[in-house]
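Appendix B. Chain record.
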Amino acid sequence: MSLTSVACCQLALAVGDPDGNRAVARRAVERAAAAGARVVILPELTNSGYVFRDRAEAAGLAEPLDGPTVEGWIASARRHGLILVGGLCERDEDGLIRNSAVLVDAGGVRAVYRKTHLWDLEKTVFTPGDELPPVVDTAVGRIGLLVCYDLKFPEWVRTVGLRGADLLCVPTNWPLSPRPAGERPAEVTRVQASASVNRMFVAACDRAGPERGVAWVGGSVVADPDGFLLAGPRPAYDEGLVIAECRLGDARSKRVGAHNDVHADRRPELYRSILEPARSADPAEV
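Structure tokens predicted for this chain:
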């Protein structure tokens, strides 16, 4: 399989300015396409911004899948011949407000994922998803979707790896938090770990700039199946492109050395205990 250029567009967006956000994203996609990108990723909640005053504000910014944001992404995908993944404040077919990731190509919407693990006040705004994250066959390889906080749950990331994803795309909005001097953001380390333990490429697209007093990590990165960074984070954690050449076919092999395979070596019969309530100890056995 040949090299595929994967780009994360790290953007400064504004809550409550969907027209401006769509314009910022469109220009970033154009820059990524001009740089040769075949897969382009935009941040979480690209259309709406993130720091909502309340649920009503989010609901007023939410769009259906056939709204102007996704329609614009499809037009960009057709114009530039690429695959685009973006975060959407979505109003679904039942009127529920979702924190979603949408994958489009020249043919239209290929996959939608509704964020399952909601972070902090997101629980007061969004309805969580209840379906497995999609893994989609595309022109460049198999692509899976998650959103931000989902990466904290290794069993959820594993569901993507076990279904054969070559590349996991993760729109994110990582709020900036203190870290020791010289340390890499923990969010970036989590991307590397997810890539390594599943032997797949992982591209996470973060935000930059402040929004209503909240600053962002600016930790957009692309990691390879060994967990090493191919690109990012940007030196100043600022707005701009993070782009890497990925041989996505390398993710098809789960072998580590001559004697190990991270899928074949699994012992799922021993893992059931983490999915079942712990059995109370029998007093006679203590």
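Further analysis of this model is presented in Appendix C.
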